[in-house]
Amino acid sequence: MSLNIPRMADLAMEGRVPDVLFWVGCAGSYDARAQKVTIAFCKILNEVGIDFAILGNDEACTGDPARRAGNEFVFQMMAAQNVEVLNGYQIKKIVATCPHCFNVLKNEYPALGGKYEVIHHSVFLQQLIDSGKLKVEGESPRGDKAASITYHDSCYIGRGNGIYEAPREVLNTLKADIREMNRIKSNGLCCGAGGAQMFKEDEPGDKRINIERSEEALATGANTIAVNCPFCLTMMSDGVKAAEKQEEVMVYDLAELIVQANRW
Amino acid sequence: MLQPLIFFLICAVGFGYAGYKFSKLRRNVLLGKDEVIEKNPGQRFKNMMLVAFGQKKMFKRWIPAVLHGFIYVAFLFTQIELIEIIIDGFTNGHRTFAPLIGGLYTLILNTIEILSVLALIATIIFLWRRNMLSIPRFNKPEMEGWPHKDANIILYLEILLVMAILTMNGTDAVLQGIDPAHYPDTGTLAVSSWLGPLVFGGLSESVLATLERAGWWLHFLVVIAFLNYLPISKHLHIIFAFPMTYFARLTPKSEMENMPEIQKEVQSMMDPEAAFDEADMSAELPEFGAQDITELSWIDVLGGYACTQCGRCTAVCPANLTGKKLSPRKIMMDIRTRAEEIGTKLDSGDKQYIAEDKRESAKALTKENFDDGKSLFDLISKEEIHACTTCQACVEACPININPLEPILKLRRHEILTESAGPTDWLPMFTAIENGGAVWAMSDARDKWTEDV
Fold first, then answer.
1. pLDDT digits over B106-139, tens only?
2. Nearest to A203 among B265, B387, B390 (CB)
3. What distance in Å separates the CA atoms of residue B240 and residue B141, rounded to the nearest whole number?
4. B31-57+287-422 in CATH: which number?
5. Which residues make beta-bridge pairs with A21?
6. What's the CA gap between B127 and B117, in Å, rounded?
7. Do B319 and A3 touch (CB under 8 A)?
């Protein structure tokens, strides 16, 4: 199946604004693993028949890691550029698969003249399910084995924006055994990537944060770790690999689990 | 009439000195920068009532919440007794409220007695927990020395206070049977009506009367001592928790404060029509972020003073949990230490603390010309602020809504923007974003992934 992924620039030529703009993000665009999430989400958008577009090469980093590292200049430059593009296309609604992009677009661009309705894909998926537009049909997202899933709260969707239930409701539609970790929701433990840690070596310590969190996830005995952030995806996958459990335990984004369940 | 006079003098000195100390605290908090506070008094008041008064966030951990609750509620109710003590003290009366409100007095006294016993139990458990159990958050490096001692002093004072109350009420219960004319009936008391006769029964009237006065005075003196101890103690939270929860920001925890000065600069840089302002460029380089409490918001400094060092933030910090140096509690403690240091130096009036370039012209040392050549970075290492993942767990964990993340991020901003320093690992990321619009330096087009689908 070939996917239909409209570009905003093409729609603008026709004088159209799509219902929703899909903000892909740097990880979603360039990271080989996160690209699969991007594609899975596009599949869902196609299957459900959502009128969407991506910015493609008009999109640039939101500036989030630069801002968190302390580099406000780089952040403001990216923000100014992105706001200009988004306003130029008269974008009203944005869906993002990256919680960090989501947070900046939703909470930090308004002060810079970028005011949009911004939604994270875990909430977007939940709304599609609630409205009956998205049906999750398959028996088990893991095919042969009965799936047991543990969900890792990303900081910027969870504590940052208070979204704890939507991702869980999405997972509840899968015919799987949901196993919670000890530290969940507002007490959820970070994967270790936020605050621009993704782009630097750890400070001296006695353990890596992703190892600590992966061990907790593995202790649930679940064979799937569900995430909703490309950086959590990297961190948890690395943690599972470090524990040499990559054969038994998979780390997937919510969108991928839905695609797998529906055999799309 | 000697007693009211002594009482008056102690009140004047005790409350006067505390007032003076609290005015210094206020001055120190306001060393922080002014901040435009988003108006929403309704929500702010609600937060204060729920989080400070109602202790909502304590209940994430039930056992300490209940034990702390005993001490807190006992403290609140004891204030009623304190009002009576002050009236009795000035009028040389004895239990002025008893004949006036009768049954209600018995009820209040019983409430205080039961809560005092519960508080005593809680205090003993807290002492045991802090000193005998090895609870990690009580044994971090920043707790060594004074903070540990401070925590214990408060608990000992609490025991002393409950002892005073029980001595006062216990002897009173016995005296009511001996000399009802001087000792008005308080009704049956849950603790003192049996503990009093048990402990103090059989003592002579004069000994009883002396003990009763001793208990009364001790109660009063412990309260005065407490009040004057607060400004140097972590126990200040009993007051500062209220403004803290009121002024704590209402925006999402993950939202970073904007820097309009840089926003403006970038806008003019990117605007081809804006004239290149030569004069502006040659001006002194501005300082960004914060390296000292004077560059933090006053609310950050308030947080430093409101912090009771419980360490719930540090206990959930992913960096601290995995052995990194960062401890959000230490950041808040360092802010207070530095605010105290600046306050003390300002009080000294010593001209050596006037910034060098202003020393000649300045008449006196002020907040504005102060520069002792030190900063928060003398207390907080770069390693600490570099370890933060901005996960906001510390912000979530704080029982009184202190935000340790804000000062950490402001320190980072100073390091990167003003010092042009910071982890070298970040440089390729900054460059990649600036030059290629992506966090990694990529040669592919951003939408190359669409080709394979």
1. 999 999 999 999 999 999 999 999 999 989 999 9
2. B387
3. 25
4. 1.10.1060
5. A53, A94
6. 15
7. no
Average of per-residue pLDDT across B330-343: 98
Mean pLDDT of B358-378: 93
Distances (CA, A) of B144 to A210, B129, B337, B394: 30, 16, 14, 21
pTM of the model: 0.94
Q: What is the DSSP letter of B256?
A: P
Q: How far is B342 from chain A (nearest CA, A)?
A: 26
What is the bridge-based pairing of β-strands A224-227 and A52-54? unpaired
Q: Which of A13, A22, A14 is nearest to A55 (CA)?
A: A22
Predicted local distance difference test score (pLDDT) of residue B283: 58
Answer CATH for A8-128 from 3.90.79.10, 3.40.50.150, 1.10.4200.10, 3.40.50.1860: 3.40.50.1860
Kindly determine whether residue B256 and residue A68, on different chains, have CB atoms separated by under 8 Å.
yes
- Give mean pLDDT, residues B47-62: 94
* Burial category of B433 from C-beta neighbours within 10 Å (exposed 0-12, middle 13-18, buried 19 and up): buried
Find which of A199, A207, A259 to mutate to test the B interface (most B CBs within 10 Å of its CB): A199
Delimit the domains of chain A by residue range: 8-128, 135-261
DSSP character at residue B51: I
A150-166 pLDDT tens trace: 999 999 999 999 999 99
- Alpha carbon distance B441, B287 (integer Å): 30
Q: Token match 């799509």: residue?
A: A18
